[in-house]
Design goal:
By secondary structure, this protein is mainly beta. It has a single domain, classed as Beta Barrel (Porin), CATH 2.40.160.40. It is built from two helices and twelve strands, in the order αββββββββββββα.
């Protein structure tokens, strides 16, 4: 399945001819995070049941081609770091990097496609500098419903362990995941989106569950062409079936801006993949 998805995505990305139109985006998001339950204190590296806060900055970029208004391919990049990244700490969400290739078919009211990518999360920046490295792949689609509603879905897998954090085993891996969501155009300038993602996999020899629920509002700035602002509330829950079960929750408020350029591509109807590396960083860093 992984080989088929990668081949399809690369073929779509390489289908560039005279009719192709280029599109893309560049974005920045600032997030404030509140962690609770079995999270570890990242400053001293000792377990605590008290919550703590940190901030995260994420930079994203997309470049894509839409050929003959039907076939698309796009390449995405993402880089994130928290306010702990410049400190010598252990067991924390410090930074992450991700790339993904997406491609598919646009059929008027629907989009169907596939994605393949990889990410690395860094949980420790002391002498050990432990990381988790994962590949991921899957299929996705969206459908434009009446009354300004768009429904979308993703189904995929996170690959086996890799990296230097416990041989790569100390964060979620070998996981099946899905995402369901819908957006509603409140006006010509405001869109409200809700989504839920869930995964079941392995971590440190135990069963691992991860889920993310988010509500997001996007605002098309009328006075600045192609500039979009967004606000988002997200809750992530992680559960490790170890010693009767350990659970943690990550509550995040985010504000950001995205500038889009070129033609209109299907990226506005596809869900962001950032929740995947969040699961890895939080499970391998804070929870582990």
């Amino acid at each position: 399945m992984r080989t088929l998805i990668l081949s399809t995505s690369l073929l779509a990305l390489g289908t560039v001819a005279a009719q192709a139109q280029v599109y893309g985006s560049a974005g920045f998001t600032f997030s404030d995070t509140h962690l609770s339950n079995v999270a570890q204190n990242p400053i001293v590296g000792s377990p605590t049941n008290e919550p703590f806060d940190n901030t995260l900055h994420r930079y994203t970029g997309t470049i894509g081609y839409l050929w003959n208004d039907m076939v698309y391919g796009q390449l995405e990049f993402s880089s994130a770091e928290t306010d702990l990244d410049d400190q010598t700490v252990e067991d924390a969400y410090l930074s992450s990097y991700r790339y993904a290739v997406r491609g598919g078919y646009v059929g008027g009211t629907f989009v169907i496609g596939a994605f393949y990518g990889a990410f690395e999360t860094i949980q420790d920046n002391d002498a050990n500098n432990r990381t988790s490295e994962r590949e991921f792949w899957g299929i996705e689609g969206s459908y434009r419903l009446p009354q300004n509603v768009t429904a979308f879905v993703q189904i995929g897998q996170i690959g086996g362990p890799g990296g230097t954090d416990g041989g790569g085993d100390d964060s979620i891996h070998d996981a099946d995941f899905y995402l369901l969501g819908a957006s509603y155009d409140l006006s010509d300038f405001v869109t409200l989106t809700g989504s839920f993602a869930d995964a079941n996999g392995r971590m440190d020899g135990d069963d691992m569950e991860a889920s993310t629920f988010s509500v997001r509002m996007d605002f098309d700035v009328p006075s600045v062409q192609n500039l979009f602002l967004h606000a988002e509330i997200t809750q992530t829950r992680l559960f490790q079936d170890e010693s009767g079960g350990e659970e943690m929750r990550d509550n995040t408020i985010s504000l950001g801006a995205t500038y889009r350029f070129g033609g209109q591509g299907p990226m506005t109807t596809m869900a962001d993949l950032g929740y995947l590396e969040n699961w890895s960083a939080l499970s391998g860093g804070v929870m582990e």
